[in-house]
Amino acid sequence: MHRTPLHGRLGRALAAFACSLALVGVAGCDSDHDHDGHMHSDGTLMTMKNGTSANGLYTISWTTEPATVVVGEVFVVRTSLSDATGSAVTGATLAVDGYMPAHGHGMEGVVPLTAEVTTTAGTYETQGMRFQMPGQWELRFTIEGAPGKDTATLAFGVQ
Amino acid sequence: MRSRLALALLVWFCGCADEVTAPAGWTPNERLFVASLQPLGTPRPSPGNALADDPDAAAFGHRLFFDTRFSANGKVACATCHDPSAGFADGLALAEGVATAERHAPTVLGAAWQPWQFWDGRADSLWMQALGPIENPKEHGFDRVALAHVVAKHHRAEYEALFGALPPLEQADRFPAHARPVPEAPGDPQHVAWLAMTPADREAVDRVFANFGKAIEAYERKLAPAPIALDRFVADFVAGDDSGGGHLDADAAAGLRLFVGKGGCVFCHSGPRLSNGAFHNIGLAQPSWAAAEDRGRYDGATIVVASPFNCLGPYSDAGGQGCGELPFVAQQEVVMLGAFKTPSLRNVARTAPYMHAGQHATLLEVVEHYRFVEQHVAPIGPRESFLHDLDFTDAERDQLVAFLLTLDAEPLDSTWATAPTVP
Q: What is the 3-class SS of chain B, one letter each residue?
């Protein structure tokens, strides 16, 4: 007996998982826009560059260096954290991980390192990120700072 | 059925129905993935090698690559297992150097686009890679001090023009005929001879050894796969022609759709080189002709981080910058047990047999492996969690093979694919 192949339903699964992310501490689900309002011509892979943590303690926004992530190549995530009043959160402990929900695996082969960027308040830099596959990923943030401990999951579509 | 219902509920709840309605023709994801299969472009930077793109170093490396004097029996060159007439591989399940090696010789064509070298990625550059077979007892069976002597005797002028003066290798009391570190066998005469040398002399020999590799790398960076039909197809596809300009026939185009669609091949064979450069356990058994156990990347990750010849080491020209993934390599990661590098598929038709120990003789066998992958229990480590049987008909299997056969190209410049006239 053959199981239904995962990839055979992948197109729908990617979109559904992306949508499910909207239920986890980020605002809204929009099939044609990411959270920055950037238009997706394909309407499939989703990227959410900012959101609120699950318990509402933090507002998170992130960028990457390079701006376009290449599969199989390391990249940097720069994360900005602010609290419920909009003030930058300094001195927090932040971990950033990647996860591919449709496949049930995370990043493999790398151990990313996060450090606070002391020259820009509330900014943290995670080096050594690497996505080994194209498709729908999540960035998973674990934050422990003065407002408390919280997590956030934001979609990241990688071509 | 149950999973489809769950997906439908999620979609309804999210209001994203337009994302999951598969359109006629190519789906949005298939379009994205086809568009990601861009032409190769230039080789990746090699920050550890200041002469990586130096034409004189490439010409020198060309001679070294074909020189059989860097072997224990005087009969083995890099080109022995990376034979231009065999797609820069050797057509054998296991490489044959001075003895039968432990793994299949991968092609060198396009290797300069890969972030990791060897099946287990135990080298982070082609110059570091070139050093491994020299001292492998089953490949060249040679040693770094003997290598330095051969360079001094037969290639002195070219070497010194590129890298500066050789050490005084003629001083036999300082530089024995044969010596190399063999820490796993402390009683080995070559190891004893190596330890008898001064640290400075050992370092001088290591530098010659590294420079040998750097010249080889400069040559290997010339071995670029030529454009293939897929490149032309993708260019027209991205420009709006869903038929890709007809650059793939109907079967191959259907095979491409399987490749980026329900076959899921593109998740690992991704991007311009048709490889994500990562390591995966795909449930391959070790064949009867190979070692009973091969831990693959699990060991490779340890070796590359510890080596003095990596991008961060004292023989690198990188100055600690631009070393990519190396500073972040995970150690003793369980999913890397039995994991091997995703090979590029460019020129795949001419580099049979396949897999790290030549387990499969044909591309048909390879596709059948993935089609029924759940039958295969990895002898060590966990099989990749996302690999499941492919819901392929025999006709679809044949279409995917037809596509793989179109990925063939000659090297860009044939002068690099023949032995140099002056050895």
A: CHHHHHHHHHHHHHCCHHHHCCCCCCCHHHHHHHHCCCCCCCCCCCCCCCCCCCHHHHHHHHHHHCCCCCCCCCCCCHHHHCEHHHCCECCCCCCECCCECCCCCCCCCCHHHCCCECCCCCECCHHHHHHHHHHCCCCCCCCHHHHHHHHHHHCHHHHHHHHCCCCCCCCCCCCCCCCCCCCCCCCCHHHHHHHHCCHHHHHHHHHHHHHHHHHHHHHHCCCCECCCHHHHHHHHHHCCCCCHHHCCCHHHHHHHHHHHCCCCHHHCCCCCCCCCCCEECCCCCCCCCCCCCCCEHHHHHHHHHHCCCCCCCCCCCCCCCCCCCHHHECCCCHHHCCEEECCCCCCHHHCCCECCCCCECCHHHHHHHHHCHHHCCCCCCCCCCCCCCCCCCHHHHHHHHHHHHCCCCCECCHHHHCCCCCC
The pLDDT tens digits of the residues spanning A39-91 come to 344 447 899 999 999 999 999 999 999 999 999 999 999 999 999 999 999 99
Contact A109 B330 (CB under 8 A): yes
Give the mean pLDDT of B152-176: 98
Read off the pLDDT of residues B345-356 as tens digits, 9 standing for 90 and up.
999 999 999 999
Mutation target vs A (from B3, B37, B270; most A CBs, 10 A cutoff):
B270
Mean pLDDT of B371-389: 93
- Is A21 in CB contact (< 8 Å) with chain B? no
* ipTM for the assembly: 0.88
Tell me whether B10 touches chain A (CB under 8 Å).
yes
